[in-house]
Amino acid sequence: MKVICAGMSKTGTKSMQAALKELGYNVYDFMENFEYLHDDWVKILAEGGSTEDFRRMYENVDAVTDIPGNIFWDEIHKAFPEAKIVLTIRDEDKWIDSVENQYSKANKPIFFVLTFFSPTFKKLGRFGDKLACAIFGSASKASLFKAPTINSLLYKMKFRRHNAHVLQNAPKDKLLVFSVSEGWEPLCNFLGTPIPSTSFPRKNVRENRPELVKEYMANNPTFIRAQREMKISFALFVGLLGFGIYKLSRTTPTTWMDTIGGALASLRS
């Protein structure tokens, strides 16, 4: 582990992931933590973890961004004391506005269909809920017809406390306080890497968030597997539904109504 990005989500973490990848680092963001370290994180969230656990989890990883690594930055740094720490910052009002906007877009019908028909996507949702409870004390409740809401006051308090904790406890000689709007120069000077000739990446910002979702759906292994599971499960569902309708059509109304009535009676008893 060479770089620990301790900034809260929505402070440019996806841009940081892209930037570090461009600099040649092997980066674990939220999805990589889910895909490769899910069981480790579930254990840590339920029972706690040791320095040895974090050293084993990240021994072949160069950098970590976004949740859950940013929240556990200090524990990861204990396992890799030579790693550098980047605290990405953002104006608080703009930050909470971005958080609320992202939640408001979370009730897309495709996500509910995936959750219903894909075990993998349901597992991903449970993982996100566990992290939300650990970080903010509660998980938002999504609905197909109503966007999830958050406690903005609580979120802003957590945001301030997290940043204060990093500023107070991170070794000053290993800490960079950084805004992605500053571009390559301060980051590369801090990391000791050449400055790329390309523009600094801008990922998961409001205007290009739909493109990021499309990119995940097309290229991310978890989303690809979830879509495949959805197609199989939906096909089975339609097949069973069709078979059930066929069987009902072959019986008299009295027979299938008696069957339904008997099933309801058994449930009441």
Structure, explained:
Pfam families: Sulfotransfer_4 (PF17784). 24% of the residues are buried. By secondary structure, the chain is mostly helical. It has helices spanning 13-22, 30-47, 51-57, 73-79, 92-104, 109-117, 119-136, 152-169, 184-191, 209-219, 221-249, 253-268, and strands spanning 3-5, 27-28, 63-64, 84-88, 175-178. The chain has one domain (3-229): 3-Layer(aba) Sandwich (Rossmann fold), CATH 3.40.50.300. The protein starts with a strand and ends with a helix.
List keywords for this structure.
5 strands, elongated, five-stranded parallel sheet, 269 residues, mainly alpha, single chain, Rossmann fold
The main pleated sheet reads as: 5 strands, parallel
The largest sheet has its strands arranged as 2-3-1-4-5
The CATH topology label is: Rossmann fold
Shape: elongated
Span of the ends, CA to CA: 59 Å
Corresponding CATH architecture? 3-Layer(aba) Sandwich
Low-confidence stretches: none
Helix content: 55-70%
Averaged pLDDT, please?
84
Q: State which percent range the strand residues make up.
A: 5-15%
**Which H/E pattern describes the elements?**
EHEHHEHEHHHHEHHHH
Number of E strands: 5
CATH class, anyone?
Alpha Beta
Structural class: mainly alpha
Rg on CA atoms, Å: 23 Å
